[in-house]
Amino acid sequence: MTYVVNEKCIKCKFTDCVEVCPVDCFYEGDNMLVIHPDECIDCGVCEPECPVDAIKPDTEPGLERWLEVNREYADKWPNITSKKPALAEADQYRDEKDKFDKYFSSEPGSGD
Question: Would you say residue 92 lies in a domain?
């Protein structure tokens, strides 16, 4: 098992989760974070830190796609280990549905 970041993170990118991760397995895209599934130790400390409930165990039904998204972009984006401010529009987009098709960016973030 591993944890994955799902589309609820898109256009929000709260980074509370990265500060508690003991193995620094978060990677930063332009408008979301992902978890490297081969680095995650399944401790679960990140899950309750996310204010938009974007982190879930990959054992939950329907998260197969998100496991692949996390795997693909964790290999492309820079590592992030410290908290940054959320995106300016986070409150506006936090409850929006179907954000991947509308807003996902494959561009990397700045990392640490």
Answer: no
On whether residue 15 sits in a domain, the answer given is yes
Q: Are 56 and 13 in contact (CB under 8 A)?
A: no
pTM of the shown model: 0.96
Rounded-to-integer distance, Cα 95 and Cα 104, Å: 15
Span between the terminal Cα atoms of the chain, in Å: 27
Question: The domain containing residue 58 runs over which residues?
Answer: 3-86
> Considering its fold, how many domains does the chain have in total?
1
CA distance 87 to 64: 26
- 3-class SS at 21? coil
Q: What is the pLDDT of residues 46-78, one digit of tens each?
A: 999 999 999 999 999 999 999 999 999 999 999
